Amino acid sequence: MSTHLSKLLAACAFALAAAGVCAPAVSAPAEKHPKAEDVLKAQAKKSKAKSKKTKAAAAAAATAAAAAAADPLSPEVAEPDITDTVVTDYACELNNKITIYTNEKDDSHIALRWKKRLHRLTRVGTTTGALRFENPHYGLIWIGIPAKGILLDSKLNRQLANECKNAQQATAVVAAAPEEKKS
Predict the structure, then answer these.
(1) What domains can you pick out in the chain, each with its CATH number?
(2) pTM of the full predicted structure?
């Protein structure tokens, strides 16, 4: 008899559920917590402020870049004057050529010819004694040590020319090479 009763109760429950009597409770409008609202508002304000700051910074950078490009008289952009300079040619790996123009009166700047373009580079102090010259507008960095020179692109983070040697540096390497023994 208990099996019949349990079957009867199960059938009634099924019938009531099908009829919608035991329908799930309808969700009432969600009650918002006051602190949750404050947190959401603060996050929205932060994101708006961030987007305004990044937009302002991007606009300022674009304006500065446009001003530098528009001002051909800017020393970083303008082609340097190479009259009355000492010319040094460098032969680099992969048949690259670099020409450096130095002025005896101004040791804080050089003019560097790379890929048919003349760039003005400014000297940057180093602790190692290497000669380091930079042009932040074009991202060029020339590093000269007694054995060789190297040209870097700081914007693309790569080497442009390596093992650059002038005539004096190239002859020093030849002189340092061991002589062949005569038979």
Answers:
(1) 86-176 (2.40.128.200)
(2) 0.56
